[in-house]
Design brief:
463 residues; 1% strand; mainly alpha; single chain; two-stranded antiparallel sheet
Length: 463
């Protein structure tokens, strides 16, 4: 009974530690989605066209790519905890600057800074959680990153809706003479501060400590997590590291330019974005307004969609360590291909009004709305959480931070490409846009079947 109690206590401690690290994922989701309710107001405030707004909204994604690339370097140089603190400071400064921006140029620069924080968080949270979690909990705890991301998205959209409802519109003045859309962006500031404070209260990664020759500290951390086997685990980590040099990007080189496992990580990152998931969260309120819904109803639909994403991620957390990573990816690819294909058909059959907006006659509007939410369900069950789980655990101890940084950095590059081109694709035809995303979902199925190996239940030292 004593051992069982001790195990439960250590498991609870790991969950709490991982939850603090996952606040970075919450800010990741919040920062990228809070812009949703402000897009229309930005267009009016700064008198900007589709291309300018697309680039401004996507400027955060450029920063995210940069942040992800340097996140691995920072994590190996100053440690996982200090890197989280750096990200929290950047989140806070970006929220403040974006909320009081004078024009589209400085707004874009503040969003770029926030994007760097998002990129760092996208690397450090899955790496840290994978390194702190025991194998039997790693899938579920790794899924906390995606749960935090989608919860952050939901919170941002809920804040957008609440602020817009109080002010009557995102353009209206709310408090202290500031427009409602500015308060949407400023609302991120308190969570950013709490993230930094929380990071200072959790232990450093034992894998990082061993890499820095701080075995005694690593053993103390591991003893609180896995008990008496801590000393043996430290020796095992030491053997898998076995490097005489500081980890660097050159360690990722292989026969085809990069190690095969790194190419697989890049492929996972690419397909997670090429299926178009962020179009739903960046532009959905504008999209639903374009097909006839009011601003208020469009925000409600977007909030419901993000809530669907949260519920589905809980299902993924409950099943990822039971069914494995690969089966969930396969199921998700099939479901996304079908639902995106349905959306492509609905919007491809839509008419166009005098303003050039799509008009979905009869039941097509309902079909598109249901298909969009089913698509989010399929993504949230599979490619949303599972990609972060795999990226956190699939690389060996020596290359993890750098490989994850490269894969996550390129993920943001693909995210930028999809998000920045959507406003143009919208003018060409939404049927084409969703058709392209459906094609990517089909290719993702082929990729999983050909290249993904199951990692369920394996220790990081076995990778």
């Amino acid at each position: 009974m004593r051992d069982t109690t001790a195990t439960e206590a250590s498991s609870l401690k790991v969950v709490l530690i991982a939850s603090v690290a996952a606040v970075g994922g919450f800010l990741f989701g919040f920062d990228t989605a809070v812009i949703n309710g402000a897009v229309g107001a930005l267009e009016q405030t700064f008198q900007a066209g589709d291309m300018a707004i697309g680039l401004s909204v996507s400027s955060a994604l450029i920063g995210s790519a940069l942040g992800a690339f340097v996140g691995g370097l920072l994590a190996d140089w100053m440690g996982r905890i200090r890197t989280m603190v750096v990200a929290s400071v950047l989140f806070a400064v970006s929220a403040l600057g974006s909320g009081v921006a004078f024009g589209l140029v400085d707004f874009s620069l503040w969003r770029l800074l926030g994007g760097i924080a998002v990129g760092i968080a996208s690397v450090i949270a899955p790496a840290y959680i994978a390194e702190i979690a025991p194998a039997h909990l790693r899938g579920r705890l790794g899924s906390l990153q995606q749960l935090a991301i989608v919860t952050g998205i939901f919170a941002a959209l809920l804040v957008d809706y609440g602020i817009a409802a109080m002010a009557g519109s995102a353009m209206n003045t709310l408090w202290l003479g500031l427009a409602a859309w500015r308060w949407m962006l400023l609302s991120e500031l308190p969570v950013a501060i709490l993230y930094g404070l929380g990071a200072l209260m959790i232990p450093e990664s034992p894998r990082y400590l061993v890499a820095k020759q701080r075995d005694a500290q690593a053993e103390v951390v591991l003893r609180s997590i896995i008990g008496r086997a801590a000393a043996e685990k430290v020796m095992e980590i030491r053997q898998t590291l076995s490097t005489e040099h500081v980890a660097r990007f050159s360690d990722l080189r292989g026969r085809f330019g990069l190690l095969p496992i790194v190419w697989v990580g890049i492929g996972l990152s690419a397909f997670q974005q090429l299926v178009g998931i962020n179009v739903i969260f960046y532009y959905s309120s504008v999209l639903w307004q374009a097909v006839g819904f009011s601003e208020k109803d469009s925000l409600v639909i977007t909030v419901i969609t993000s809530l669907t994403n949260i519920v589905t991620t809980f299902i993924a957390i409950a099943t990822v360590d039971r069914f494995g990573r690969k089966p969930l990816l396969i199921l998700g690819s099939v479901g996304m291909a079908l639902t995106l294909g349905t959306m492509a058909f609905a919007f491809g059959s839509a008419g166009v009004d005098a303003a050039g907006n799509p008009v979905l006659p009869g039941s097509l509007g309902t079909i598109a709305l249901v298909a969009a939410n089913l698509y989010v369900f399929c993504f949230g069950l599979s490619w949303g959480p599972v990609v972060w789980v795999l990226l956190g655990e699939m690389f060996n101890n020596r290359i993890r931070a750098h490989a994850l940084g490269l894969a996550a950095g390129l993920q943001w590059v693909f995210n930028f490409a999809v998000s920045a081109t959507f406003p143009w694709l919208r003018t060409v035809g939404l049927g084409l846009a969703y058709g392209l995303y459906a094609g990517s979902a089909l290719l993702s199925l082929v990729f999983v079947l050909a290249f993904i190996r199951e990692t369920k239940g394996k220790e990081l030292e076995e990778m």
